[in-house]
Write a structure and sequence with these properties.
60% helix; disordered C terminus; 8 strands; four-stranded antiparallel β-sheet; elongated; 710 residues
Length: 710
């Protein structure tokens, strides 16, 4: 870390006055951002209303389950809200229980316009303890979440001791909507608190932390407003998942950019009399690295446009808008605010012009000496450690069922568990099938004759399509029901136009699409990041080292997650989207710190040091601030672990662990060791790979523009 600055009173000599042109630039920048916040602020609040969390918003575009969902939405009544009202008493249902259940079923059918117009007959368990009424409530009954809430309110009044639960696909979707509806507020509050604490601890100033925090808040508002405009202009799909990840990404990346820029600016203030000039030098020095850092993230996210999963394609542009917003704010608004506030914003540790820090030996200097003594052993040992952790992926739990996707059990999941216990001989949720109307009879006959199917019956029909409702003999999302869905699809291949959907079919299609997306997107991300690094570092070897390192970090972090998700967190599996999501973010974000280290090494070489001797000064000067930035980024992503969705908890854990591994193991030890072993060959085939005479210390630049203080 940087040597501690001596507490200082306000400087006795004020810096020279800024020119009129400079004042206009500074105040003009602030005015532009004020106008943008005024314009985009109200739009940011509208983004929640554009979020879509229904199944079609996540499904792959060409999947059978997507086709089924689209067709069912166009049938009479539109997309139905399918619910199951479960009545259960441990000692057995009483006559009063059954009368109350029948009365409520009739009321639900009448009030919420059930398909068929009448209350369905109850399915009674053999033990007499459970009865289930299944409804298809028409679209005209209202929004899904409102309908489910109203049904739950209606069923609150019942005989004492009787348990009434509302479940089924519609209730599961409503519970998911409720989670995403509360996600943004919780996520924003916790993220702001975490970033505030970290900034105060980093700067040890009662004022300075407010400046980057306010700026990153502006970036968050701007990104949400711009995303809203993008959605309205292009029809882009934004889910609660992508909106939440964008918030964390803006706060994490924006705070990192602020830490790096402020560290550089603070260092320049000791050497440059006027804050305006110090900021200009700071921006010129670290600007290319910040631009490359943001570029790698944007490039990685843009590769998600090649994904088949609908929510993944939407996440790419949404995340890119967030990163660009953070970069623009932190290189325009933040510099203007800091210059206008002057040196006093750093009080009580004011970097006065012409002063020097009290020298002390940096921890990263000691680490550098340690690595230099045995670089080969450290490189091999670190590689073995990360490789061993990566082997943990072999113990990865199975794919997560939809019902297990919550960290807290909602009512719909409780209802599903009761139904599974009461009716072990058959499935409790329908498998949706559609067929051309002229072939519906053939389709229903083939479905009923399929192994694993309990029953199949005709439903709504319109516009040349007929709905067929199928129940499997096995419980929902079990291996048996999955096999039944696959057999149904095989049998109905003989019926042109027929397709099989429903929750289990959707999950199968998502798993297949995620597997395909990994095969397509992962190479694209690696290629895009590698090209940006080659362009920045003017080398092929250094980029290959950095990309290989972050890929190894991803494997290690995912492997560690696989080892703890089930025994420690109690999760029943991992979401199929986890590997791809974490890969994109860890590769794109993790390579940033390697960029800062390698960029600093280039500056040392250009300042006159041979490539072989530039490694340790680069590590020493960048170590502290990058460690702070890595800790902040890991902490912001760890905020996802407080949310009630297993996928976001898993994503937050893997990315946070990966960033910490990259910051404190890979960049500090492995990249440093590899650079020491390779020497100038790390810059091959660029000009820095050629041997250059060392410039004597007396004639070398006095390091007026270090990449950043560490």
């Amino acid at each position: 870390m940087e040597a501690r600055e001596r507490p200082a009173s306000p400087p006795s000599t004020a810096p020279p006055s800024r020119t009129t042109g400079q004042r206009k630039w500074l105040w003009g920048t602030l005015a532009v951002w004020v106008l943008l916040v005024v314009a985009l602020g109200p739009l940011a609040g509208k983004l929640n209303g554009e979020q879509k969390n229904d199944a079609v918003s996540y499904l792959p575009a060409g999947a059978q389950s997507t086709k089924v969902a689209d067709v069912l939405a166009d049938l009479p009544g539109g997309s139905t809200t399918d619910i199951a009202v479960v009545y259960h008493r441990d000692s057995g249902l009483t006559p009063a229980d059954r009368d109350a259940a029948d009365a409520q079923a009739r009321e639900i059918a009448a009030e919420f316009q059930a398909v068929g117009g009448q209350a369905p007959p109850p399915a009674a368990a053999h033990d007499g303890r459970t009865a289930v009424y299944t409804f298809q409530l028409g679209e005209s009954a209202g929004l899904r979440a409102d309908v489910v809430d109203d049904v739950r309110a209606l069923t609150e009044h019942h005989p004492a001791g009787l348990d009434v639960l509302v479940g089924g696909p519609g209730a599961t979707g409503a519970d998911m909507d409720e989670v995403f509806g509360s996600l943004d507020g919780t996520l924003m509050l916790v993220t702001v608190l975490v970033v505030t604490v970290l900034l105060i601890a980093t700067y040890r100033s009662p004022f300075l932390w407010l400046v980057p925090l306010l700026c990153v808040g502006v970036a968050a508002a701007a990104s949400r407003g711009l995303t809203y405009l993008l959605v309205k202009a292009t029809g882009l799909t934004v889910t609660g998942q992508s909106g939440g990840i964008m918030t964390v990404l803006v706060f994490g990346a924006g705070t990192d950019y602020a830490l790096l820029l402020i560290a550089r600016y603070r260092d320049e203030l000791r050497r440059t009399e006027r804050p305006y000039d110090a900021m200009r030098i700071a921006l010129r020095g670290c600007g290319p690295a910040l631009l490359a850092s943001a570029g790698t993230v944007v490039a990685g996210l843009t590769c998600l446009l090649a994904a088949d999963m609908n929510n993944m394609r939407g996440l790419g542009p949404v995340g890119a808008v967030g990163v660009v917003s953070a970069l623009v704010v932190m290189t325009t608004l933040l510099p203007a605010a800091l210059v206008l506030l002057g040196r006093r914003v750093f009080w009580p540790l004011i970097p006065a012009y012409g002063t020097q820090d009290k020298p002390r030996r940096s921890a990263y200097a000691r680490i550098g000496v340690f690595v230099a003594r045995r670089p080969a052993g450290i490189l091999v040992g670190g590689g073995i450690l990360l490789g061993a952790l990566a082997f943990g992926t072999l113990a990865m739990p199975g794919n997560l069922n939809l019902a297990d996707g919550f960290t807290k059990t909602p009512e719909s999941v409780s209802a599903a568990k009761v139904m599974a216990q009461a009716f072990p001989e058959r499935g409790s949720q329908p498998i949706d099938v559609i067929a051309p109307a002229g072939r519906a009879a053939d389709a229903v006959a083939r479905a009923a004759a399929t192994e694993g199917v309990a029953d199949a019956r005709l439903g709504r029909s319109a516009d040349g399509w007929t709905e067929i409702t199928v129940h499997a003999k096995d419980r929902p999302e079990s291996a048996g029901e999955r096999a039944t869905v696959e057999r149904l699809r095989d049998r109905l291949d003989a019926v042109p136009g027929a397709a099989v959907g429903g929750q289990t079919a959707q999950r199968i299609d998502q798993e297949h699409a995620n597997a395909r997306d990994r095969m397509v997107v992962v190479p694209l991300v690696l290629a895009a990041v590698l090209l940006i690094l080659v362009a920045l570092l003017r080398s092929l070897v250094a980029p290959l080292i950095l990309v290989s390192a972050v890929a190894l970090v991803w494997g290690a972090a995912l492997g560690l997650g696989a080892l703890v998700f089930e025994p420690v967190f109690g999760f029943a599996g991992v979401d199929p989207a986890l590997p791809l999501l974490t890969f994109v973010f860890l590769v794109a974000l993790g390579v940033d710190y390697g960029i800062f280290l390698m960029h600093r090494m280039r500056e040392e070489v250009h300042a006159g040091l041979p490539a072989e001797r530039a490694v340790l000064p680069a590590l020493t000067s960048t170590g502290g601030v990058i460690a702070s930035a890595g800790f902040v980024l890991a902490a912001t992503f760890s905020v996802l672990t407080v949310l009630p969705l297993v996928l976001l908890v898993e994503v937050g854990f893997v990315i946070a662990v990966g960033v910490l591994l990259d910051t404190f193991v890979v960049r500090t030890f492995l990249v440093t060791a590899a650079s020491l072993l390779l020497g100038r060959r790390v810059w091959w085939p660029g000009p820095l790979a050629k041997s250059r005479p060392e410039v004597p210390a007396a004639t070398r630049p006095d390091d007026r523009s270090p990449m950043m203080a560490g």
